[in-house]
Amino acid sequence: MAGIIKQWAYPLTGKNDLDPLFNRIGEARIVMLGEASHGTHEYYNWRSYISRRLIEEKGFNFIAVEGDWPDCYHLNRYIKNYTEEGKGAFKVLHSFNRWPTWMWANWEIVALADWLKQHNQALPLNRKIGFYGLDVYSLWESMENIMQYLEKTDLHALKIAEEAFKCFEPYRYDDGRSYAKATQFVPELCENEVVHLLKEIRAKLPSYNTDHENVFNAEQNALVMVDAERYYRAMIHGGTHSWNIRDDHMVQTLDRLLKLHGEKAKAIVWAHNTHVGDARATNMSQQGMYNIGELARLKYHDHNVVLVGFGSYKGAVIAGRSWGASMQKVEVPPALSGSWEHLLHTTGIHNRLLIMNDFHQDIFMENHIGHRAIGVVYHPQYEKYGNYVPSILPLRYDAFIYVDETTALHPLHILPDGHQTPETFPFGV
């Protein structure tokens, strides 16, 4: 295997070495850019560079990320130069204050946001590039956003929103765990309230006379509330159902954003490899799980969707020791022998780009090989027990970017070494 990879993989030493990837993307409408962790500098840098080229050269309309809708919408308004938004990406990104804050409140995203804002300045409003969150976790933030909106537009609907708020209020301070436990005794605890609110808002949408995107924002926040309530209710039972609710919500949000931006809209998605890489090429499918990569391929067809995975052999990452724990820099040990990352390392200590069309050979198609996945909670000493997803890599992705040694992300809440802003694009681009 190593010999075949060495023969067909492209060396990745500079920005021009990604040209084969852009040739592979071609006229695709959806490009999903993964990551093997939520705290690696190089993954963010390369995704930023790829996104910039997709916007400039191929006319992509927006970036949608594995992040909360309300916070990302705030950043979206900032980069589109709405006058009411805050000054400076650094200040705006400090509003991303729900753990894990570092995923989006980091210097790498500051640089991307500043570039997007500058790029958007000369564009008419209907062509400005957007930045949106796909995730489902922001139940209380979405509720507060809806109430603020309805105070100005619809006092009748505001009363319905207040009833929903009262229902959830006792459970709002622990990321949904107490609400999930309470649904064991009252299974439909607040479901009726959020569904009623969504129906009311959808019925009134034509009468809301604020700007078009703010109307969309109100409906989206109501959808987040409905799906977040379902997610927390499913969470208490364990298993795969809560995972599938979350990825269903993310792909439905992507669908809505594509429709918002027009018939020929193009989307860039940033999410973890476990969401991006087609679940059918992993053991996830055997457990009844699916993800946004798989769902997008099924809905939009393979020629319109390009899935790009990322991975590395060793390095460092920002993570926590437990959910809600302080962020810290954690060393990532050399990949386990027999894993995809170890196999790529044995081909030589070089970064590489793999285009999967070149690897349609039986030797790659018959073997599920471990592929490292690091979450926001990470214990490297226990890595072999749960951080490798058995995968057929050429079926899981359309392309794969391998970085032999990585460095940690630069959170805004931790001063960079020497108090200097870190280099935020590869090779000074």
Automatic annotation (TrEMBL):
InterPro entries: Emycin_Estase, Hydrolase/PRTase-associated, UCP036794_erythomycin. Gene3D superfamilies: EreA-like (biosynthetic domain), EreA-like, domain 2. CDD domains: Ere-like. PANTHER family: ESTERASE, PUTATIVE (AFU_ORTHOLOGUE AFUA_1G05850)-RELATED. This is Erythromycin esterase family protein. It comes from Chitinophaga qingshengii.
